[in-house]
Amino acid sequence: MASTTQVLQVTERRNLAPDVIELKFKAEDGTPLAAWEPGSHIDLRLADGLIRQYSLVEPVTGQDGTWTIAVLVEQLGRGGSRFIDRNLKEGTTVKTSGVRNHFEMSPGSKYLFIGGGIGITPLIAQFRKAIASGASARLIYCGRERARMAYLTDLETEFPGLVEVFDLSEGQLLDVAGTIDSLDADTQVYCCGPDSLMDAVEIAMSTSDRLPYMHLERFTPRNPADFNDNFEFEVFAATSDIEFTVPDDESILVAADFEGILVPGDCLEGTCGSCETRVIEGEVEHRDTILSAAQQATNEVMMICVSRAAPGCKRLVLDL
Are residues 212 and 237 in the same domain? Predict the structure, then answer.
């Protein structure tokens, strides 16, 4: 079920802020790494089957055949960042599944970018692209304190007057609802950061006129308690002409694999997008953190590593 991988070598490592490290990669075989669009991320394949997603950071000098990421080292996290901190030094190698982009920029003339902590990373290239296009754009950067906010000084220098900082240590707290309410309804809003920040943006953007302009980037799996209990259902794999049962304790991805239907599956928790599958018929309970609310409402695609048939739906027809 694994995707094609590429071996990267760390060429530079530096500390950006307390607990934040920046890594620059080149291809181990020396070939230039693929160009990418703002919002893109790569999957790093770490030890013991650990796979984590990291947004690509665009250097001020532009893309040069290397890739750069910034990693927040979380001592109480799920282990990926600790592994990177301990093991990825200059000269070491790591495998990647390549570039994916589920946080693409939509056309617009007005943008607001809201970054929280390390969530600033995908927004840097997006903000640059918006400014370069001549659009009206503003960046809000929220963090615990300025010293811990990676790239802040660089951004304030590059975009004077366009970066608004909310430093929690100084009692500065972003009024998300008020900020969203002050925007024109067709303002494209991009947000990446802690769940609390993105949840607040999601609530503020939940009205029918704003929902199409909301874009969130999450790299942590959803809480299983947020969903209905699992139940058994049928799947017809239209391309393979195979019908199979998905038990309540298996994912569609695993059940399909048992039938010989191989689908790439990297993260297995709805965060990378490698298993995206077109929905032909049936209603889906979306459990991924990739698709926006508007995308989920269309019921056109699903992430079969976590998402399932919706309550009352006994059969899905999928493009498998």
Answer: no
